[in-house]
Design a protein that fits this description.
six-stranded mixed sheet
Length: 287
């Protein structure tokens, strides 16, 4: 069942059709508004680059602390970047290193559904993007958007089924390249994915680390996919998220289509600046 805190509760006013002064148009509009509100719901989302479970400069392994911090947010859907799938060297040398992939360790008993997209593969293991969800993930695909050279990137596209509703929500976890020319190509690949693989009326949430310090993604995604960024809608600017201790660059984003972002927040430095080099973002997304 959809968690009760994620539902928008609606109390319908009692309107008698034959009451004195009752206007047929007003009555119809009221009923329509009630019906529309009753069909809407909200999802709390969180996005964070977890830096493979280590602090900045890899000085300390803090995945256990990170798991507790992620839990406290109470998100329904979590978008994670730089998630380790396996790493043979760390498994043998790092104390308290989990035996399971990091996305499974983080999901634990809170998020029964998860998907992982392996992007970077190396001698000791691999890492990529992950989505944790309290809702069923009915399908997922990791789209390779690597351009050239050793840097590997992917778009993890998950289709979420909201229990008790016909609506499916498309959640896409993003971690774009460091080179601007690569990012622009990857943004256009994202737009093509949204156009070709997702129905025009379907709600879409795209979140993650865009590495877009020049703020080019706003116009590309608006013109190419009809998407808007929730912090830009709420405050006029994308949030500063990097580096987490003294955020200057606006690298992390939450974009939506056929949805409305409410109360977007940058999570506070304590404890997050100790847990990631990126400040996490959270928002309520009304569908």
């Amino acid at each position: 069942m959809l968690p009760t805190e994620s539902l928008i509760q609606v109390s319908a006013p009692v309107i008698e059709p034959n009451a004195p002064g009752a206007d047929a148009d007003v009555l119809a509009e009221t009923r329509e508004a009630i019906a529309t509100a009753a069909l809407s719901f909200s999802i709390k989302v969180l996005t964070v680059n977890i830096h493979k479970g280590f602090t900045f400069f890899n000085r300390k392994f803090i995945l256990h602390e990170l798991r507790e911090a992620v839990r406290t947010v109470g998100a329904d859907v979590v978008f994670l970047q730089e998630v380790t799938g396996t790493h043979a060297r760390h498994e043998n040398k790092v104390a308290n290193y989990p035996a399971t992939p990091h996305y499974e360790f983080l999901a634990d008993s809170i998020w029964p559904q998860f998907a992982y997209g392996r992007n970077a593969v190396y001698t000791n293991g691999h890492h990529g993007n992950a989505v944790l969800s309290k809702f069923p993930i009915v399908s997922f695909e990791n789209r390779d958007v690597s351009i050239s050279g050793p840097e590997r990137r992917g778009l993890l596209h998950c289709v979420l089924q909201i229990p008790g509703r016909e609506t499916t929500v498309h959640a896409i976890c993003v971690h774009l390249g460091l080179a601007e020319s690569h990012r622009l190509k990857q943004l256009h690949m994202l737009c093509d994915m949204v156009h070709k693989d997702i129905a025009p009326s379907a709600p879409v949430i795209v979140a993650g680390d865009f590495n877009d310090w020049r703020l080019r993604a706003h116009d590309v995604l608006k013109q190419g996919a009809g998407m808007h960024e929730v912090f830009v809608q709420a405050t006029g600017k994308a949030a500063r998220t990097f580096p987490a201790r003294f955020p200057v660059l606006r690298l992390d984003r939450i974009y939506v289509r056929n949805a409305i972002g409410h109360a977007p927040v940058v999570l506070p430095p304590k404890p997050w600046s100790h847990l990631s080099d990126h400040a996490p973002l959270a928002a309520e997304i009304e569908i």
